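Q: We require from you a single protein entry containing the residue sequence and its fold in token form, and nothing else.
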Amino acid sequence: MRILDRYIFKSILSIFLLCLFTFLFLYIIIDIFSYLEDILKQHVGIHALIMYYIGYLPIVFVQVAPFSCLLATLYTFAKLNRDNEIIAMRASGLSIVALSKTVMVFGLVISAIVFWVGDKYVPQALTLNQKLKYDMADKSKKERDAARQKDPVVNLAMYGTKNRLIFVNKFLPQTSTMEGIIILEQDQQQNIIRKIVANKGVYKDGGWVFYQCITYNFDKSGQVKGEPEYFDEELVSIPETPTEFLSQKQSPELMTISQLNDYIWKLSKSGATTVVRRLKVDLYQRYFSPLLSFMIVLLGIPFSLRMKKRATGLSSIGISILLGFFYYVLNAVCIAFGKSGILPPILSASLSHIVAFITAAYFISVLP
């Protein structure tokens, strides 16, 4: 690494770490004061609070790392500009790309770290924090379980006995009722041999009664064999109880990429295209959202190099807020379009980053 590269790297790393720890500290302080009354009321112990906020560190890191990268980039180059060091570097024959290479690599490294933390630690942190919230809440275990029983579970998928895949649009634990049921029974080669579709299912006397139920049988080639069987009411042999269905409640935020990919594969077997499309947007967003740190660094480079000599502090913060705001708005709009079906899932997750890259490349190319 050249002396110049080490000089720039040291500057941007120090500002990045300062911003990162500042944001983490402010988050914890603001959150504590927001819930101070509840904390005192519930007599929450210091150990429980420490574990709770330690669990939140990966979540906050993923959220504030891009903004810290942008602020560090803007401040570093603005300081170099103020001291006329940019002019000296350009006069020595360095191009904009060569001058910014260290910052770009830094952005890529932070993006990789964000991807790793977001996939490996964030789902675990969210799960741990939910558990700690329940433990700190002013409810007995019985009351918590009763409250949980009232919440409906939507888009439920689970593996059942006899090599079955069970999909339910909505499960109502309070009444032990399922709505929008699809059951796919497979052979040992994972070929579908039977499909059961029902409008509703109710757990009665230790068994499931399905209403408006149609059963399809399939041959080895996947073609419907014989006539479908229709019953207004049928007792279906499913050993899974409502408690087992309730334990299968899953949220995309609590899954790793591999778990989410497997969950999408399960749901795709049922033909639930709307749910699968929304989950695919979440999956692709897991891959592309870490690039936010790198892209926002690219956007910050041309703006920081255009700053006036004295525009180091407040100007850096102002421009970073504007850039971050527009980037996040564009990303949110693209994600919404993807989940509504206007854009393909992979395009909705990547479009904002493509626009940011093209915009940054244009502004860098027109720099004098």
User: Anything to note?
Assistant: Residues 162 and 185 are 7 Å apart (CA to CA). The beta strands are 153-160, 164-172, 177-186, 192-204, 207-217, 229-236. DSSP finds 13 helices and six strands in the chain.
